[in-house]
Each structure stands twice: as C-alpha cells, then as structure tokens.
Design goal:
six-stranded parallel beta sheet, Rossmann fold, globular, Ubiquitin-like (UB roll), binds zinc ion, binds nicotinamide-adenine-dinucleotide, binds L-histidinol, multifunctional enzyme, 26 helices, 5 domains, alpha/beta, 29 strands
Length: 809
C-alpha cells in the first residue's frame, strides 16, 4: 500500500516553491501533477530533481487541452499513471498507446487504477500540496494503520534507499508525528519506554526519505538514509541488525566514493579517477570482452569487470546507482521506444579471418603483452595483481552449494552436476574395481606415457617418504620422538572443467599411494558426451588403488568428500587444484569443525613468472608463457626481463602472437594475455625481488648461468632452471609435483609432496632420572600459570621417588 495521501501540485510554476517550502510532502513518495497547467519540460525536471517521489502521476482534467503528442511525451518522461475522467478518454488514450494499467479512471468518489501499488485513490485523499500540513499527513497515516499489539505500538521495518533491510523497530503515534515533522528516523524505544530519536547519542542519525504501509496496513516501512560518521544502523556497530551487507554493487559504490576522497595518489583507482582517457579505454576494453564471453563463468567474470569500471565512471561523474535505477524506471515507463538497433560504428563488419583462425579462434586482433617499466611502481603493482574474484563474492556462491550437498547428499550432487556440468547422472559414484569398458579408447602409447610419468613421480616421492622414527634425548632420561603415519582417507580432486587433467590424477594418486593412505577417493567432473570420466583418469585410479571415483566437480564434489554422502565416504583431507569454486569450497570445509577435514593448500588458476635475459630464446620464452596461459582465462603469465633490448621484446611479442594463433585454445590465451605483462628490470636482484614478491606458482629461469641464481629464490611453488627446462616437463613427467600453491600462497605453502599425505605424531618417555632433570622446571612454570593439577602430577611422582621432601608444597 502506498502512503494514504496523494499530494496534488496544481500549477507547474509552483512545483519548485511548494517542494522547497514543504519538504515533508516527499515522504509520501508520490505526487499528482496537473498536466493542463504543467509543461512536459517542467514535469520532466520535477521527476529528475525530486528523487524521493517514486510515483509521479498526471491529472487530465475533463475537457483539458493537452495535445496527444504531449500526453505521449508526459508518459515517456516518467509520468506513471494518468488520472482521467471518462471511459471515452480511456479508449482514446489506449489507442494512442497508453496501456490500460497506466490509467486511473474517475468513478465519482475515487480514481481506480491497476497500476502496481497505486491502485484506488479516494478523492478525499488527494490533497492540494500547497495547503498540506505535517499533522494532516500524520493523521492520515495513523488512521490507516492498525496494530494488534497490547502496547499499541506499530511494527516498523527500516530499510535504506536500496531497499536493504536495516532492522526492525516500533513506532508510536507520537514518534510517527515527530518523524514526519522533522523528516528524520524517530521511533519508540520499548526498553526505555520513550520516544527514540535515532542517532541522538551515537551520532548515527537518519534522514527519512519515504514512509509506506504494508499490504494489510499493520506494519510501517521507513525508507532512510543512514547518516553520521560510520553510518551504522545497529547498536553493535554493523550496517544492519542482520550484520554487514554483502558487498555487491552498492558496496562497490560506497567503496569507490571513499576512494574518491582518500585513495592514495599512486593507487590504480586514483589513476582511473585522474585519467579519463584510461577509464574510457578500460570501459571499451571490458565491454568488448563481455561481448566475446561465452560460458556462464566468462560472462559473469567480464560483466563484473565492466560494472567495476562503469561504477568508477559513475562515481567520478557524481552519479549514483540510485540515479541509474531511476533512469531505468523512467525508461521502463516509456510507451514509445527507440528501435534498439546499434549505431553503425558498432555493427560487426565481416572481418577476414587471420591465417591461423582455423585453429579454433573466434576472436581477432594482436595477442600482445602489456609492457611495464620496473620503475613504474604503480604499474608493476597493477601488472602483478591477480585476476581473481573476491573471496567473499565466491563464498557467497559456494556456501549454498556446500550446504545443499551436506543436507541432501547424493540427490544434491546429481542435481548440481546436471546444473553446472550439464550431465544427468543416475549414480554419482563409480566403485572399484572399475568396469573394463571405462578404459575404452586408451591407447598403448598413452598407457606407456602415463606409466613413465607415474614411475618418475613415484621415484621422487618415494625418496621423500619419511619412515623412520626421529628420537632425541633432550636431557638424560628424557626421550622425545616423532613418527610418521599416513593420513587414512584422502579425497583427490582432479579438474575437468576446461581441460581434463589425468596428470593431476597421477600427481595426487602416486604420492598418496607412496604414503600408504588407506583409502583414496577420486573426484572429477563427468564428461558431457557420456557422463563418464576420461579413461586416462580411470587408468590412474586403478593403478594407485583408488576405491571410488566421485563423478562430480566444483564445490559440490569437495562438499561430498568433506561431509560424506550415502555412498561417498567422508575423507580426512582433500587435495588437488581447481578453479575458484573448488578452491573456495576447500577453504570453507577446512574451516568447518563439523567437517573435520583439512586441505593441501589453495591451488587455483595456473600461473607462471619467467625471468629472461638478452640470451633467452624468444620462442622458448613465448612457449613457456603460453603453456600456462592456455589453462584458463583466469590464469596469469608474467615475463620479467633483465635488461632486454627493444628488439628482444619485439621478438618475444611476435613469437607469443604467432604461436598463440596456432593453438586450439587461442581464445582462452587471448583473455589470459589481456591481464598478463612484461615487466622490464635492469638487474637480476631487481628481477628476483619482484618474483619473490609475486611468489609465483611456477618460476622459470631463462638466464645465463641460471642454476647460480637459485639461491635468490625465496618464494615460488616450483623452479624450472635453464633454457631446456620447460614447465610442461614438471606438469607431466619429470617427477616433481605439479599441484602447487597459487595466488601468492607460495610465500607460506609448499606444493604437494609425500609429507602432504602424512601426519607426524610425537611421543616421549621420561625416566626417574629425567623427572629429576626437568620436574622442577615443570612445576615452576605450572605455578605461574595457576595450573596446580599440572604441578601436582610432577610433585606426587617426585615425592614418591624421594626426589622431593613429603612436606614440599
Ligand atoms: N595450481 C595447480 O597446481 C593447478 C594444477 C592443475 C590445474 N590448475 C588449475 O585448475 C583450474 C581447473 O579449472 P576448471 O574450471 O578447468 O576445472 P574444475 O574442475 O576446477 O572446475 C569445473 C567445475 O566448476 C564448477 N563450476 C563451473 N562454473 C560454475 C558456477 N558458475 N558456479 C558453480 N560451480 C561452477 C562445475 O561444477 C565444474 O564441474 C584451472 O584454473 C587450472 O589452471 C591448477
Ligand atoms: N600447470 C598446471 C599446474 O598449474 C598443471 C597441469 C596439468 N596439465 C597440464 N598442466
Ligand atoms: Zn600446465
């Protein structure tokens, strides 16, 4: 229900003076303009300037002289409903194109309409705005609400102008009157039993924008702008009584407004605010990338980028999201529309495909890395920032998936696999021994390649296996030891979104086997073609003795292994790389004590940093960059060049372009290269500092005497030393593990290794002599901690051994 009064603005020229003299009228959120005395321009200006009036209607008096053209223009500029006198007029206006639901017809005592929330308006509720008073408004409102509460208070929902709920409060007749009079948030405090002017003590005051009634008139809604230093609504210092808001577009707008005020001079956002040409270029670039996006995740990724830059433009221009929404509302109300064709310059010209177009490309243009000078600190920081979504945003998508699987088990898994992978499964698990037909199509050459790779990985990981018990006598009679045990049940995630990765199956399965884990469970998204996983993955599963293959991917697969389902065992640790959904789900379950499940590390989108000098072969450098770029659009590849000549840079750029065009995954590469860079340094120290700061998943050294520089590496997942060590060798067959920390986590995590599948238990054995040596120290420290039982455990023993007198306290 709307506010029970519709203020009538009789004359166009008075619109401004009335709204200025009586600002409280806007609390109704609605206005009726006399269209016979108002020009279209005045109506349009009223709608544009008075944002609190959500529904602006127009009265066409009987016998009015308003032309048909102007009526259409009124409707098109945002007049929501036309109040008219007769059926005849209604028919005529409908022929003009005004929809029936945009007409309110005079039935003698009321104007009757079907328009959204306006509906019927009794004539005695239409009141001349110039004579309307605050008390009239309060009276009308109070006579329209009811309450069944004993204390006669009215339940009041408080929302902001984006309709986000801030909290629930109560109003009394008195507080409603005060709120209208002062146009601020005034309520009734039940705990203090008195009128409560919001923010009087905290400073977090509220500007009242609108008041509404709910559908059956038993609850109020106050639309407010929260003001004050922190603009929190809740007494617990959060934006709302339901906690902080999800970030979203509104949050981004608020953040950018703050940045506009206080972003550091060298930050990227400040650069965007200060450089309109850069902002324009980014908006165009992101718009183009959005048009080229195909899959759901690409579209959401690119749209998010475009919204970000568009939002910077809004904030820089002083335009709010609310202005944009109002604009959309007015456009929605238009009855004549533009044809909607694009301007000729944006209509696609039939382009001649580049020579290598057949390789799988749908996009065109140079594939070129941005070149940044190492001296440009801000440019370097921007180049080294990873193209990842905020954890909170991803978590927002992942939490419901995890909770669904946890609550509904296999049923949820089947549903989510159908939704995200387009495969309708009957059973989400394949049990060992795996049916022979699942190996159909596996060639001998492939078996040999997998066997060789598995053997090398086994050798390297077997050598890492810690089997012995470590023993140290810290004092005579005090023997400390540590012994390894395998983690019993492990869940291994094998990615299968944009590429099937049997190599990951062996990188995880082989060390699990070496460490003697008791149960190995695989999970991988099923293929669209037949709902199976690839024969190579099944082959590896068989070889490493996996008990089950979960036919699911993404967050749902992680949740199924973390909590278990009817047929999937709950595991103790989940390992393996994956996209952002997989990584976020792993991080979620590791933090949930109910899951009792650990993870290897955050191993997300692949990345590489190549350090190259003038000796480097441009083709080698390009091939290494591209081998990681082809993993996904969210991968990132960085070349740090040490004293590279212009010519070498040009050769590398050319090699990247030429090789990329030959790749079937060139479209993915193109998008990855768009957020990848070449950074130019003058010395190896500078290059290694930059690399250690970035902490890449893979670091490739294509520099003279590369091995000499390994001591300078402090943060990296795995290092590839010398011109003939391509990263692909480590991905598949050399023996090192390819499951490595990304996002910069190489600062604190190691890649997967044999000990990732083990845990280490400590033990100790203390003799009477040992007790004599350390007992007093134990008692002293226990005393200062106030833990007497700890102290007693030593004291009693030492007394029985005669090491302390009976009287010892
Ligand atoms: N760091 C490492 O060690 C390492 C090793 C190998 C691969 N990788 C990386 O692993 C990643 C593999 O990613 P991928 O996408 O190809 O395969 P993936 O198996 O990780 O993810 C695919 C799954 O994501 C889910 N998904 C897709 N869109 C979704 C959406 N909108 N909402 C919810 N779920 C959705 C689907 O269930 C799908 O099965 C790549 O980024 C690659 O670079 C990293
Ligand atoms: N380079 C990836 C790790 O980031 C692993 C991989 C598997 N297949 C090919 N490459
Ligand atoms: Zn790879």
């Amino acid at each position: 229900m709307v506010f029970p009064i519709l203020p009538f603005f009789a004359a166009g020229k008075d619109l401004k003076s009335v709204t200025e003299a009586k600002p409280f009228i806007s609390l109704t959120g609605q206005a009726l303009l006399d269209l016979s005395k108002t020009s279209v321009e005045e109506a349009a200006a009223f709608i544009e300037e008075n944002k609190s009036y959500k529904f602006v209607c127009g009265l066409l008096q009987p016998g009015h002289q308003v032309s048909d053209d102007d009526i259409v223009r009124f409707v098109n500029c945002g007049i929501a409903v036309l109040f008219i006198a007769s059926e005849e007029e209604a028919n005529r206006l409908q022929q003009l194109g005004v929809p029936q639901e945009r007409l309110a017809l005079d039935n003698g005592s009321a104007y009757v309409s079907q328009f959204e929330i306006v509906q019927d308006f009794a004539k005695d509720r239409i009141i001349d705005a110039s004579s309307l008073t605050e008390s009239q408004m309060a009276q009308a409102l109070l006579s329209s609400i009811k309450t069944d509460r004993e204390d006669k208070l009215y339940t009041t929902l408080v929302v902001d102008t984006y309709q986000r709920c801030l909290g629930l409060v109560y109003s009394s007749e008195e507080s409603v009157k005060m709120a209208i009079e002062k146009q601020v948030g005034v309520y009734f405090s039940r705990s203090r039993n008195e009128i409560w002017v919001k923010g009087l003590t905290s400073g977090n005051t509220q500007k009242l924008v609108n008041i509404q009634l709910d559908c059956d008139g038993d609850a109020l809604k106050f639309v407010v702008v929260q003001e004050g230093k922190k603009s929190d609504f809740c007494h617990l210092n959060t934006a709302s009584c339901y906690g902080e808001f999800q970030h979203g577009l509104v949050g981004l707008e608020q953040l950018l407004r703050q940045r506009m005020e206080n972003a550091p001079e060298k930050s990227y956002t400040r650069r965007l605010f200060n450089d309109p040409a850069l902002l324009t270029a980014k908006i165009k670039e992101e718009a183009e990338e959005l048009t080229e996006a195909n899959t759901k995740s690409e579209v959401s990724w690119e749209a998010a980028d475009l919204f970000y830059f568009a939002m910077v433009k809004l904030v820089a221009s002083g335009v709010s999201l609310e202005d944009v929404e109002r604009n959309l509302h007015v456009k929605h109300l238009k009855i004549t529309r533009r044809k909607g064709d694009a301007k000729p310059k944006f209509v696609k010209q039939e382009a001649k495909p580049e020579p290598a177009q057949e390789a799988g490309a749908t996009l065109t243009g140079d594939i070129e890395l941005e070149v940044v000078s190492g001296k440009d600190k801000e440019g370097v920081a921007a180049a080294l920032s990873r193209p990842i979504q905020r954890t909170s945003e991803i978590m927002h998508l992942v939490n419901p998936i995890v909770e669904k699987v946890r609550a509904e088990g296999n049923k949820a898994l089947i549903e989510l696999t159908s939704k995200f992978d387009g495969v309708q499964l009957e059973q989400p698990v394949l049990e060992a021994p795996f049916p022979e037909e699942y190996l159909d199509g596996l060639t001998q050459e492939m078996r040999d390649a997998l066997d060789l790779s598995m053997e090398n990985v086994r050798k390297f990981h077997e050598a890492q296996l810690q089997k012995e018990t470590l023993e140290v006598e810290t004092q005579p009679g005090v023997l400390c030891s540590r012994f390894p045990r395998p983690i019993e049940r492990v869940g291994l995630y094998i990615p299968g979104g944009t590429a099937v990765l049997p190599s990951t199956a062996l990188m995880l399965g082989v060390p699990a086997r070496v460490a003697q884990c008791k149960e190995i469970v695989f999970a991988s998204p099923p293929r669209k073609s037949d709902g199976r996983v690839s024969p190579e993955v099944v082959y590896v599963a068989q070889k490493v003795g996996a008990s089950k293959i979960v036919l699911a991917g993404g967050a749902q697969a992680v949740a199924a292994m973390a909590y278990g389902t009817e047929t999937i065992p709950k595991v103790d640790k989940i390992l393996g790389p994956g996209n952002q959904f997989v990584t976020a789900a792993k991080m979620y379950v590791q933090n949930d004590t109910q899951a009792l499940c650990s993870i290897d590390m955050p191993a997300g989108p692949s990345e590489v940093l190549v350090i190259a000098d003038e000796n480097a072969d441009a083709d080698f450098v390009a091939s290494d960059l591209l081998s990681q770029a082809e993993h996904g659009i969210d991968s990132q590849v960085i070349l740090v060049g040490i004293a590279l000549s212009e010519q070498k840079i040009a050769e590398i750029q050319q090699a990247v372009h030429d090789q990329a065009l030959q790749l079937p995954r060139v479209d993915i590469v193109r998008k990855c290269i768009a957020h990848s860079s070449i950074i130019l340094c003058n010395s190896s120290e500078e290059a290694f500092d930059m690399s250690n700061d970035y902490a890449p998943e893979h670091l490739i050294l294509q520099i003279k005497d590369a091995a000499k520089y390994v001591p300078l590496v402090f943060n990296a997942g795995s290092v590839f030393v010398g011109a003939y060590t391509p990263e692909s060798c480590g991905d598949y067959s050399s023996g090192t593990n390819h499951t490595l920390p990304t996002y910069g986590y190489a600062r604190q995590y190691s890649g997967v290794n044999t000990s990732t599948f083990q845990k280490f238990i400590t033990a100790q054995s203390v003799t009477p002599q040992g007790l004599e040596n350390i007992g007093r120290a134990v008692m002293t420290v226990a005393k200062v901690e106030g833990l007497d039982a700890h102290r007693n455990a030593v004291k009693i023993r030492m007394q029985k051994l005669g090491l302390l007198p009976e009287s010892f306290q």
